[in-house]
Write a structure and sequence with these properties.
Blueprint (H helix, E strand, L loop, with lengths): L5 H4 L8 H15 L12 E3 L2 E3 L4 E5 L6 E6 L3 H18 L4 H17 L1 H12 L3 H22 L5 E3 L7 E8 L2 E5 L7 H13 L2 E5 L5 H14 L6 E3 L6 H10 L3 E7 L2 H12 L4 E5 L5 E4 L5 H11 L6 E5 H16 L19 H16 L3 E4 L15 E4 L6 H4 L6 E7 L2 H9 L6 E5 L3 H10 L4 E4 L18 E2 L11 E8 L5
Parallel strand pairs: 7-8, 7-10, 8-9, 10-11, 12-13, 12-17, 13-16, 15-16, 17-18
Antiparallel strand pairs: 1-2, 3-4, 5-6, 6-20, 11-19, 14-15
Helix pairs in contact: 3-9, 4-6, 4-7, 4-8, 5-6, 5-8, 6-7, 9-10, 11-12
Length: 510
């Protein structure tokens, strides 16, 4: 849309129009971000294939430095209604395309994500703060969902029902559910979109995406690549907003045109959105809060468990339970491992851990540390702000002797905090692990096969890692139980975006 010409980049004062000045400012901002393809940096929403702006904008900041990354369109409820209508109109044709057509377009989208991996990874780091290696890793993870669901599109089979009586036959067919509302958080600004969007598009649905206000650029870059891949206009729409987010989310859940909602975020917001959706009995997939238990039994490989604890912290493993006989060994090794972390700007090569997303996140971690210490916990590593590094840095922290009455047992920290609690028996730790309203994931380390089966079945969670800290992949169902939500993403979740229809044929005897 924007060409790199001297006429655009260096217009004369007499020829410059307001539109040209806006383009110059935008391109200068994109150049300062260090992107190879500066046209991936979009500052407007997307409705019906057109980049859609507004007079009002909001600012997105780099959480590492506090510096402004850009101004993004502050879209409204009226804009959201237009996006939903565009998706509805596009659904009429997109839903009738062949599965092979959708497969081919999604595979082209997947290829473009790999071709632009450096820029997409950099955008994730700039707006989210995670180290660049993790940003690029997220892009690869994100792209894997597009690839997976491209292949699922051509395998969305129906069924033939055995004859119910002479002269009658029955079949089951799967049909796309309709327009889908997708609401995503800032922690995985790309992957949280593609594992929902990939399934929706593969099923034949169209979508309206609302990315987090802290991280809109990754979503907009994905939309640009989808356009380049040839996905028709109106199939993907992106609404950006900060100020109007509550009203927009309400519209995305209540609008009768929308037939399905997929949300990732807090349990509090999930309950609010579910209430909105209940008025029209919309189908929902919810991935809400989590506060995963991580259990180390006395027969575990302690070194392996330490590495697993570091890895699993990405999926809410803050409550770490260690059996008494290996407690001291595990605590010392985890503290040593965390001490080796390098905290800093995600773009710096040596950085292993970046900033939190904003000041409120810092305050929450700090309050959880203070609460645990007030109840007898000891700080082994960290426990303090790192203001000298930037506005949103908190030292990776390990606390020992944490009492189960501490706040972090009740409320997910969502920050660089690992708390250690001693336990004696298997029954005790299962009770402690399940003593939470959440049930997203759980992890434990043991070399006892019988215990592995028992504990995996007893943990009240949707996903279990046994002797492994990373369990999420496109091929695996992702989701929780209890107040961590319902429905699944990844794996065969294309079914979440389809209606099952039974068709009975009679009069077949001639």
């Amino acid at each position: 849309m924007f060409r790199h010409t001297s006429r655009v980049l260096r217009p004369s004062s007499l020829q410059t129009t307001a539109v040209q000045r806006a383009i110059v400012k935008r391109m200068a901002s994109a150049a300062s971000l260090g992107l190879k393809d500066q046209t991936l940096f979009k500052t407007k929403g997307l409705i019906n294939g057109e980049w859609y702006g507004s007079e009002s904008t909001f600012t997105v900041h780099n959480p590492s430095t506090g510096q402004e990354l850009g101004q993004v369109a502050e879209m409204t409820v009226d804009d959201t209604k237009k996006a939903i209508q565009a998706a509805h109109e596009a659904f009429q044709s997109w839903s009738t395309t062949t599965a092979k057509t959708r497969h081919d377009l999604l595979m082209r989208f997947f290829q473009l994500m790999h071709e632009h991996a450096d820029d997409l990874g950099r955008l994730i780091t700039l707006e989210n703060g995670k180290p660049l290696a993790e940003g690029k890793g997220e892009n690869a993870y994100s792209a894997s969902f597009i690839e997976w669901f491209a292949e699922e599109a051509v395998r969305a089979y129906g069924e033939v029902i055995p004859p119910m009586q002479n002269g009658q036959r029955g079949i089951i067919i799967k049909q796309p559910i309709g327009v889908v509302s997708i609401l995503t958080p800032w922690n995985f600004p790309s992957a949280m979109i593609t594992r929902k969007l990939g399934a929706a598009l593969a099923a034949g649905c169209t979508a309206v995406v609302k990315p987090a206000a802290e991280t809109p650029f990754s979503a907009l870059a994905l939309a640009e690549l989808a356009n380049r891949a040839g996905i028709p206009k109106g199939v993907i729409n992106v609404v950006t907003s900060h100020k109007h987010l509550p009203e927009i989310a309400k519209e995305m859940c209540e609008n009768p045109i929308v037939k399905k909602i997929s949300f990732t975020g807090s349990t509090r917001v999930a309950k609010l959105l579910a209430g909105y959706a209940a008025g029209t009995l919309k189908k929902m997939t919810i991935e809400a809060g989590g506060n995963a238990p991580f259990i180390v039994f006395n027969d575990a490989d302690v070194d392996q468990a330490v590495e697993g604890a570091v890895a699993s912290n990405c999926v809410c493993a803050n409550r770490i339970f260690v059996q008494s006989s290996v407690y001291a060994d595990f605590a010392a090794k985890l503290a040593s491992r965390v001490s080796s972390f390098v905290v800093g700007d995600g773009l710096e090569e040596q950085t292993t851990h970046g900033p939190l997303i904003h000041g409120k996140a810092i305050e929450k971690v700090e309050s959880h540390v203070k609460d645990a210490v007030s109840k007898g916990a000891k700080i082994l590593v960290g426990g303090e702000r790192l203001d000298a590094k930037g506005p949103n840095f908190f030292a990776p922290t390990v606390l020992s002797d944490v009492d189960p009455s501490s706040q972090n047992f009740i409320d997910e920290t969502f920050g660089p905090l690992a708390t250690l609690t001693r336990f004696e028996t298997e029954d005790d730790v299962v009770r402690l692990a399940n003593d939470t309203e959440f049930g997203l994931a759980g992890y434990f380390y043991t070399r006892d096969v019988g215990r592995a089966w028992r504990v995996a079945e007893k943990l009240e969670v949707g996903m279990v890692g046994v002797n492994v800290g990373l369990i999420s992949a496109a091929i695996a169902p992702f989701g929780g139980v209890k107040e961590s939500g319902y429905g699944r993403e990844g794996s065969h979740s294309i079914e979440e975006y389809m209606n099952t229809k039974f068709v009975s044929f009679g009069g077949l005897n001639g």
